[in-house]
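@channel sequence for tomorrow's demo:
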Amino acid sequence: MMENAPIVEDYELFLDVDDMHLRGVLHGSPDPRFEDGARFVSGVIQVADEEEGWAVTYHGSYRLGAPLRPDDE
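structure tokens (generated this afternoon):
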């Protein structure tokens, strides 16, 4: 399932009230609304494993690339 999932670089997981979300630079999305390299914010994260490098929302799955470094903000 994850091998064809889009990858999110310069990502961070963050809480918005009680819900976890993912934001970063999206590559390889099959969704035509997102050009390669677009910055995006995901829907609610259902489950994620940063050590394994993946996250799943209600609407799709993502591979996690490099996390956002503090000096990149």
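heads up for whoever presents: Residues 23 and 41 are 4 Å apart (CA to CA).
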